[in-house]
Amino acid sequence: MIADALGKTISLGTVSAASREIASLGPWDGARATFTATPERSAATLAADEALITSWRRLLDLGTLQKGEENLAGTARQTIAVISPKRATSIGVTTGDKISISNAQGSVVLPVLVEDIHDDAVWAPRNSRGSELLAKLGNAHGGVVKVVKA
C-alpha cells in the first residue's frame, strides 16, 4: 500500500481490508442533490486577432507525479500551439513560426503547427513546458485570447 511505503500507517494492510472499510460506510441515505440547469451562453464575438483557447493535458507534461523524472520528460512531445490555415494566413505565420497567445493576465509564446482546427480556436497543451495555461492565462478552455505572430 502507498501509505506503508510512505511510513504512514492507516491500518489497512490489503486492498480487501480497504474495500471492507469502504463497504462499512453503507449506502448513501442523505438527501439527493437537485439538478439545476445552467442557462446557455451566447457565442463570444471575436475580433480578427482573437480566438477561443482550447486545451487538454498531455500524457507527459509538468504534472506533480513526474517531478524529478527528467529522462521521462525528455521523451515528451514538443510544446506547440495549433491554429487553422485561415488564421495562419491572416497573421502571417507558417508551421514552425512562433505565435503569442495572450489575455489580460499574461501570455505564452509557442511554435505553431498549422492544422485542421476551427478558425476561431487555438489549441495549446494545458500544462507543458512553456504553456502553463492556468498559471499564465488563468484559463485553459473557452476563454478569449489574442493570437498574433511573435
Keywords for this entry:
MoPterin_dinucl-bd_dom, oxidoreductase activity, two-stranded antiparallel sheet, Barwin-like endoglucanases, six-stranded mixed beta sheet, molybdopterin cofactor binding, 150 residues, 8 strands, Asp_de-COase-like_dom_sf, alpha/beta
In short:
The protein has helices spanning 2-5, 15-23, 70-73, 85-91, 133-137, and strands at residues 50-54, 81-83, 98-102, 107-114, 121-123, 127-128, 131-132, 144-149.
Q: Could you explain the architecture of this structure?
A:
This protein has 150 residues and is an alpha/beta fold. It has a domain at 50-149: Barwin-like endoglucanases (Beta Barrel), CATH 2.40.40.20. Helix content is 19%, strand content 23%. The chain has 5 helices and 8 strands, in the order H-H-E-H-E-H-E-E-E-E-E-H-E. A 6-stranded mixed β-sheet has the order 2-4-3-8-1-5. A two-stranded antiparallel ribbon has the order 6-7. A hairpin with a 2-residue loop joins strand 6 and strand 7 (131-132). The longest helix is centred in the first third of the chain and has 9 residues, at 15-23. The radius of gyration is 22 Å and the shape is flat. The N and C termini lie far apart (49 Å). GO terms for molecular function: molybdopterin cofactor binding; oxidoreductase activity. Residues 72-129 form the Molybdopterin dinucleotide-binding domain.
CATH-defined fold name of the domain at 50-149: Barwin-like endoglucanases
Low-confidence stretches: none
Strand order of the largest sheet: 2-4-3-8-1-5
Total number of β-strand segments?
8
Secondary-structure map with pairings?
Elements: H1 2-5, H2 15-23, E1 50-54, H3 70-73, E2 81-83, H4 85-91, E3 98-102, E4 107-114, E5 121-123, E6 127-128, E7 131-132, H5 133-137, E8 144-149
